[in-house]
Amino acid sequence: MAREEEFEVVYANLAKITHVALEFLMDFKRLGPESREVDTAPTLVRVVMHPVVAKAFRNALAENVRRYEEKLGEIPAPPKGTQPDVH
Questions:
Q1: Whole domain around residue 57: which residue ranges?
Q2: CA 26 to CA 43: how far, in whole Å?
Q3: Residues 6+ away with beta carbon under 8 Å from 82
Q4: What is the dihedral of CA 5, 58, 69, 36, to 10 degrees?
Q5: Confidence of residue 26 (pLDDT cuts 50, 70, 90)
Q6: Of 57, 76, 75, which is closest to residue 66 (Cα–Cα)?
Q7: Per residue in 72-87, pLDDT tens?
Q8: How many CB atoms neighbour CB 16 within 10 A?
């Protein structure tokens, strides 16, 4: 098993989230000078999760956002057109 520091770090500022019966698919993308349109932004990495894991991830993320805002203040809403794309 690889150590954590051996994993590539990817910066994404956009996510496209879809699902099928047995899994959720999260495509993490990046908008920038090379790609300014949501539809043409390249997929940097796809994470596939079982629905049970996706729900646990959602809950863990919500709890971490709550703790962050409690400590550092409310996170502003993202700019229009950069929110996760739900299909």
A1: 8-75
A2: 10
A3: 13, 14, 31, 38
A4: 70
A5: very high
A6: 75
A7: 999 998 777 655 566 5
A8: 18
